[in-house]
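Here is one chain, start to finish.
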Amino acid sequence: MKRFNVKQATAFFRVIALVLPLLFCVNSFASASPEESAPAVHSAAPAVPGSEPTAAHAPEEEEKAGDVIMHHILNNNVFAFPPFGEVELPTLPKVAGIDISITKHVVMLWLVSGALLIVFSIVGGKYKNMNARQAPKGVANTMEALIDFVRLDVAKSNIGPGYEKHLPYLITVFMFILFCNLFGLIPYGATATGNINVTLTLAVFTFIITQIAALKAHGFVGFVKHLTAGTHWALWIIIVPIEIIGLFTKPFALTVRLFANMTAGHIIILSLIFISFILKSYIVAAAVSVPFAIFIYLLELFVAFLQAFIFTMLSALFIGLATAHEGHEEHEAGVAHH
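Its structure:
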């Protein structure tokens, strides 16, 4: 019984250790010191001899909760580590009018890419040293389970025959989104998939692969016929525009779904924590803010896996629908009957 209680306490303190840096981070932004705001006020509105003090000389108002939340959610070139300080990332000159400066989401993308290379290099090294009678252990076993899940339950079940050629992309996008989501839950980290530019780029990759797969499966003539949906020519003026719009609504759905879900979770956690600062109550912090923030944080762990699965599953589904031949199911059923 004592051992069980000790394990429960240890698990509880681990969760608290994950949330405390977030509390420090919010507290440092929520409380603006008068010493820091005073110089800015005096420089903006110099005193005039003989004039009465105005509202401009009053201490600057504390930063609003919404501003702090948006500072954490949006992308910028500052990595904040409150209460320890912050690191300003370098600003690069624009190329053809495009800002290519390094931001915190770019740094997170680099960290995720490096982590994936390290993890799969270790897994590949372990498989090279294994024989046919040995079973993978540890990280190799976890990666094998995830890859088999993507191969059987996502790629094969949604694409069907010929799914192998699309499997490398599906496994890569699943692992990349999963690691981005998990890295975003680390204290002082940032969620790269909470940036709509990242999710849009991933959706564009899926769109390009889907259209190339459709052209290879049906040819150009078959691809154009697919836009008519097999209807009478009199309905083409209605069906063709709808089918063309449908080609672009699919990547749009992938973009918004991943972006919105990953952003919403962080906004909810920060909003719950800010309740205690707004009400200035330790009771609210202990009874509402911290417990509910921990619950949403644990829910975010589940959402990290869920959103990686949904994006990969929908990508496989779109590829399967684009490459499927009309009437192939009836043909296969007829062959099986004979």
